[in-house]
Each structure stands twice: as structure tokens, then as C-alpha cells.
Amino acid sequence: MPTDSRRINGPEDSFDPSVLLVDKKTIEKILRDGKRKDGRKPEQVRPIFLKAGIISQARGSAYIEQNETKVMCAVYGPREVTKKEEFSMKGQLTCEFKFATFSCRVRRQYQQDNEERDYSCQLQDALEPAVRMDKFPKAQVNVYVTVLQNDGSPLAASLTCASVALANAGIEMYDLVVGCSARITPSEVFIDPTESEDYKAENDNEAGNGSVTLGLMPSLNQVSAITSKGEVEFELLNKGTKQCVDVCQKLYPVLQQAVAKAVEDKLSSDHVT
Q1: Which of 47, 83, 153, 243 is the most buried (most CB within 10 A)?
Q2: What is the largest CA-CA distance in the chain?
Q3: Which residues are CB-neighbours of 159 under 8 A, at least 6 positions away?
């Protein structure tokens, strides 16, 4: 029988890619023994790369990497409110959170799903206390967050990234907002969990398992927003919250440096031109 010499034949044998994932028993052992897969201590965060002013078409932008978690944010405005029924003497802040279709192990849809809409609302609730919306009356600022790769704690990374993008856009703020998340088990608290360590309601339905995500304004020492999942003891939840606050305070100089570096680069480029 003749064959098509131009066609590339596929492999004779294949396997389900899910066999490469860490199984549930391994995850349980990691959480129980306190020995994380990447070698970190329970209270240790992943290395962070943060840069502001990366999207030239946007008013302000930022990009953050926390190992394999990569998030990009763009800010547009202030611009006129299009709907007359939404007229207000105070400005408006809108947030749109979206996973890129290729960002997760399972392909995401182009349209926002319920999880992304929930993250959008939480992001807006965390940023609104930090933004001086009285400075742009009758106008709105739009924040667009895209997760390019998700390896755990996407909401905390997005909160930090969006805060730096707003500052880069020249939007007046009371303070920057730093995000941090923690995975809580019956015996230990793991700061900045990866995707394999993150709390999943369908798998971790036993009592004592959960997670907490917090947004902090370090200069004011105020929590702008906090959300938790699961059924967690108050003592462990309190411990996780305090550890998140400590981490946010330590990360604050990183955000300040990223904003200052973007301003220096802009001034130097303007001077050259």
C-alpha cells in the first residue's frame, strides 16, 4: 500500500501526560513532613523578579515572576466613564483577571470562567482601599491582569503586580499593596505555596486544611483585604495571617525598588531623546 512520504508519522506508543504529575500521596507526604518539593522551608518564599513599565502602549504596567508563576498587568486610564448611569464624583476602579489559555496544566477557555470572575472581584476589593479615587472624578481606571504561567498563588502575585502597575501609571495611592498567600494544614503553615501544594476543595476536604490570601499596605500597616478557604482552626489561621504580614513587610522594598527603577529608566530615556 503506498504511503504519504510528506506526512510525519506519530510515535507508535504514547501515554497520558497526567502520569507525570505528582500524585496525591506524594503531596500529602510533603505537607505532613514539612519537606517541600523545591527544598524551601515552610516559611520561605520563592525567588521574585519584578519589573515595571514593560508595556509601552499601556499607561502603566508590571511583570512578576515567582519561580514558575508568571503574571503580567496593564493599567489604562483614567478615562471617561462610558455609561451615564455609572456617573460618580469619585473615580472608579475596574479589574479583570484572566488565565492565559496555556497557563495551566488543563487548557483554559478564552472567556472568563467563575474562578476568574471571583479573582477579579477579590483583586478589586484589595486595590480599592489603596487608590485615591477622589483624584479622578467622573473617570475610571482599568486594570487587566493576565497569568502567563500558574504554579501556585496566582492571586497574591497578581495583587503585587497590579499594585506596582498602578504606581507606574502615576495613579495616586495611599500605599502599595503587597500580596501573600499561605497553605494551612493541621500541623503546619506553608508560605507561598506552589500549584502542587495549593489548597483544592475537591481533594483537601478534611478538617484543618485550607488557605489564606492577604493584601497588606505596609507603610500604613493596614490589611486591605483577606480571604480564606477551607475549614481551619483559628490558631493556625492566625499564625498563617501573621506570617503573611511579616512576608509582605519584607517584600515591600522590592516593590519600591521596581517602581523607582522604572522612573529612573524613563527619565534617562527622555534625557537621551
Answers
A1: 153
A2: 77
A3: 123, 126, 127, 177, 178, 179, 215
Amino acid at 60: G
Q: Could you tell me which of 157, 129, 6 has the C-alpha nearest to residue 68?
A: 157
How wide is the angle at C-alpha 155 spanned by C-alphas 257 and 64, nearest 5°? Answer: 35
Bridge-based pairing of strands 69-80 and 48-52 is unpaired
Residue 176 corresponds to which amino acid?
L
Strand order in the sheet with 60-66: 48-52, 60-66, 69-80, 139-149, 92-99
Task: Please give the grid coordinates belonging to residue 202.
Answer: 475537591
The gap from C-alpha 117 to its chain's centroid, in whole angstroms, comes to 14
Q: How far apart are the first and last CA of the chain?
A: 68
Going residue by residue through the chain (273 aa), what tens digit of pLDDT does each one get? 556 666 666 666 665 565 455 545 545 556 556 567 777 888 888 999 999 989 989 999 999 999 889 999 999 988 887 766 566 678 889 999 999 988 888 888 888 888 899 999 999 999 999 999 888 888 889 999 999 999 888 999 999 999 999 999 999 999 999 999 998 888 788 888 888 888 777 666 677 788 899 999 999 999 999 998 888 888 888 888 999 999 999 999 999 999 999 988 888 877 665
- Grid coordinates standing for 1? 500500500
Cβ proximity of 211 and 62 under 8 Å:
no
Q: What angle separates helix 154-168 from helix 234-272, to the nearest 10 degrees?
A: 30
Handedness of CA 105, 16, 199, 25 (dihedral sign): negative
C-alpha–C-alpha distance, residues 172 and 207, integer Å: 43
Place of cell 499561605: 182
Cell of 108: 483554559
